[in-house]
Amino acid sequence: MSEQQYEKYYVPASSPWPIVGAVALFFMAVGAGNWVVEIKNGSDGFGLHTLAFGALILTVMLVGWFKDQIHESMTGMHGDQLGRSYRQGMAWFIFSEVMFFCAFFGALFYARVFSVPWLAGASNNAETFNVLWPTFEAMWPLTTTPGGTTTEAMGWMGLPLYNTIILLISSFTCHFAHVALEKGDRAKLKAWLGFTIVLGLIFLFLQVEEYIHAYQEMGLRLDSGIYGNTFFMLTGFHGFHVTLGTFMLIVMFFRVLKGHFSHDNQFAFQATSWYWHFVDVVWVCLFFVVYVF
Which of 72, 175, 269, 275 has its CA 20 to 30 A from that of 31? Predict the structure, then answer.
């Protein structure tokens, strides 16, 4: 077979970025662990500084690695087979994220359907109910804990509803940006992509406002029993994903300004679009499960 009959598959040279990323994660893990202990003990230490140092190294790694990837893509080193590998990798990554959120939704389901009724004496647990918490009343959200902590339930009206509408709109604007890219309309691509970024930032701002309201006025905190735990774990991790997705959109926006992407070379934009739609779908599920029902 001639050389032209073989499909090109680019194999990159050895890179220092994986080991740099591993070092960064090590410092972040050590720093985060020590910082939590220092907060609990009310002591001073280097936990926060170690965490920040690890985050700085991770930032350097991300900038350097993506710079190399962008250079390889724009110089035509990536072939069709590598593109299929990237798409498969992104699909499996999003699947792993789906499983991640399924674990937290599962914890919420278990607490609501099994644990709370059991504490009230359901399923032959009357003795447990009488001994542990005879005054317990099964309800959800569980606003009173065995330790005596009382909180309020976060309603779905107001900021949660506004944020749901914002994310749903952002999913459409992201799609319109992708359509504009497919058609080669750079002006509409910039406009729709910029609008999507603005909506993502507004969502994050309103979620911070919601957290401030929950902590200061409702007494709803991370340590407010199983309801507070599940509420902040689900909404907090989702907020982290929105932050990451917004950062990815901003990177795509600057690449668009530099003239990157075309109908045939757009995987980075497409992967970011997939991720943003995934984040939107998770929020819709979260809104109904955590806030409404």
Answer: 275
- CA separation for the pair 214, 280 (Å, rounded): 23
Domain ranges of the chain: 12-59, 86-112+152-292
The backbone torsions φ and ψ at residue 267, rounded to the nearest 5 degrees and listed phi first, read -60, -40
98 CB-near residues (< 8 Å, 6+ apart): 278
Backbone angles phi, psi at 147, to 5 degrees: -80, -5
CA angle 31, 33, 35 (to 5 degrees): 65
What pLDDT, on a 0 to 100 scale, did the predictor assign at position 8? 67
Quick one: pLDDT at residue 188? 96
* Confidence (pTM): 0.85
Q: Which residues of the chain have pLDDT under 50?
A: 1-3, 5
CA dihedral for 37, 42, 43, 44, sign (positive or negative)? positive
Residue 132: what pLDDT? 72
pLDDT at 1: 43
- The answer for residues whose C-beta is within 8 angstroms of residue 106's C-beta and 6 or more apart is none
Measure Cα distances from 265 to 11, 29, 77, 78, 83 in Å.
18, 36, 11, 9, 9
Task: Give the pair of three-digit tokens for residue 107.
Answer: 């914890």
Assign a CATH topology to domain 86-112+152-292: Four Helix Bundle (Hemerythrin (Met), subunit A) (1.20.120)
SS3 for 39? helix
pLDDT score for 169: 97
Pick from 214, 217, 271, 225: which is nearest to 244 by CA?
Answer: 271
What pLDDT is recorded for position 147? 65
